[in-house]
Amino acid sequence: MSPNCRVGPSILNADLSQIQAECHRLLDAGADFLHLDVMDGHFVPNLTFGHPLVKCLRSKVSDTFFDMHMMVAHPEQWVEWNPWLMLDLGAFNAMNAQSFMAGMLPKVEALRRQYPELTIEVDGGISLANIEAVAEPGANMIVAGTAIVAAADPRSVISSIKSSVGHVFTKVQVER
Fold first, then answer.
1. Mind listing the pLDDT tens digit for each residue in 48-87?
2. Contact 162, 139 (CB under 8 A)
3. Alpha-carbon gap, residue 176 to 174, rounded angstroms
4. Assuming Cys at both sites, which of 35, 40, 64, 108 could form a disulfide with 137, CB separation 3.0 to 4.6 Å?
5. What CA–CA distance (Å, rounded) separates 14 from 8?
6. Within-domain flag for 149
7. Per residue in 78-117, pLDDT tens?
8. Which residues are catalytic, by number?
9. What pTM was estimated for this model as a whole?
């Protein structure tokens, strides 16, 4: 199991009137990637980012990995399906109505057992209070919105998340 932890804030929680500056602020604070929750108002009732905004943001924040959570009725309008696509990321949304859902963690553990080297992302209600519980079953790509974006010191939160995940992964490897 790889202790390499990557942390990305959900920019949906940022000041969207200053989205470019917010993205750079979060990246300067140590974010490894940016998470975009794309909602079309059909698949889910909320409406967030569309093609034009993502394209514009890509041109302004060009060297950053965008992790997109696609909650859209017609994903084929966003991506071209490639039948030879290899699985290199397992993602779990662990939130319902803005609350962390610990019931998703056994699924993370099962995936980790089957694919020890896989990057496993968990998104939804992640905070410093529950990061170790998220890391213990094997999550190593963490999406945290409010915990990072609203923090007085986002750098400290990102650093603490990475440290906690690294500590848990080291402990798990020693126990095995």
1. 988 888 888 989 998 998 888 888 888 777 765 444 334 4
2. no
3. 5
4. 108
5. 12
6. yes
7. 765 444 334 445 465 655 555 788 888 999 999 999 989 8
8. 37, 123
9. 0.86
